[in-house]
């Protein structure tokens, strides 16, 4: 009976991709902004040249002394297609190049809308790349191109408490990365789950506690002061436990205060 052998551990790009898949905060890649801009400039130059050629063909065809057929080329798609000459070929080149140019523009706009990775996520990726020669990339490559990096992971900019926990208490949320001996690092998914649970608890306890406290206190001044305290607590927790905008916080606080 043949003994079952343990499958070999992944190496190289396979290993690095496994590590990135284990935590979405590691989904960090180069956007190649300069190359994309150069590609757009090349396409733009080619289109400008084709546009100039097409205008020259239009002007040449406008000369009625060359016959009705030649004069009708820029005015009739059928005549231009049947003639199957330089104007038709130029129009086909323009169509193909415009499609590539518009797609490149949309891709560039989308790339500019993506966020930058956090320094902690960038350092974690550099650490993984350095360990075990997972690829031809290295820490220096990440450092030299840090302004050209984009993150496909969850957005942490609007969650103040999540940022605070990741910065100062990340050790409590570390999760092991599969197929690596590198030290564990912060997993934002765990932090976000903790913040979500805390938000649910606060949103349930705060209104109920305010009702009970105000019910058993009869002093008008004390009740008024407690209303102010609970209102401040409500807006503060909204700001720290959610990604609500200022307008949303004001609206929610007004709803909490005004019965």
Automatic annotation (TrEMBL):
Taxonomic source organism: Piloderma croceum (strain F 1598)
Q: What keywords were assigned to this record?
A: Coiled coil, Membrane, Transmembrane, Transmembrane helix
Q: Does the keyword Nucleotide-binding apply?
A: no
According to the UniProt entry, the coiled-coil residues are 40-67
Q: What is this protein called?
A: DUF6594 domain-containing protein
What stretches pass through the bilayer?
197-217, 223-241
The DUF6594 domain sits at 15-257
């Amino acid at each position: 009976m043949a003994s079952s052998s343990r499958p070999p551990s992944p190496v190289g790009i396979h290993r690095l991709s496994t590590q990135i898949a284990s935590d979405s905060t590691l989904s960090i890649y180069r956007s190649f902004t300069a190359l994309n801009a150069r590609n757009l400039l090349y396409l733009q130059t080619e289109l400008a040249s084709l546009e100039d050629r097409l205008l020259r063909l239009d002007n040449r065809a406008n000369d009625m002394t060359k016959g009705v057929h030649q004069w009708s080329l820029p005015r009739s798609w059928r005549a231009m297609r049947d003639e199957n000459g330089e104007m038709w070929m130029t129009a086909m080149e323009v169509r193909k190049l415009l499609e590539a140019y518009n797609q490149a523009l949309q891709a560039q706009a989308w790339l500019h809308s993506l966020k930058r990775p956090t320094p902690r996520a960038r350092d974690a990726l550099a650490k993984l790349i350095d360990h075990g020669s997972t690829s031809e990339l290295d820490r220096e490559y990440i450092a030299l191109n840090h302004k050209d990096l984009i993150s496909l992971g969850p957005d942490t900019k609007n969650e103040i408490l999540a940022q605070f926990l990741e910065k100062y208490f990340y050790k409590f949320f570390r999760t092991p990365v599969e197929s690596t001996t590198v030290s564990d690092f912060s997993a934002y998914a765990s932090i976000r789950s903790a913040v979500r649970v805390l938000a649910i608890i606060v949103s349930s306890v705060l209104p109920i506690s305010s009702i009970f406290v105000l019910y058993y206190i009869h002093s008008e001044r004390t009740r008024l002061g407690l209303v102010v305290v609970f209102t401040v607590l409500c807006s503060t927790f909204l700001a720290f436990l959610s990604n609500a905008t200022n307008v949303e916080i004001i609206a929610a606080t007004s709803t909490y205060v005004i019965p």
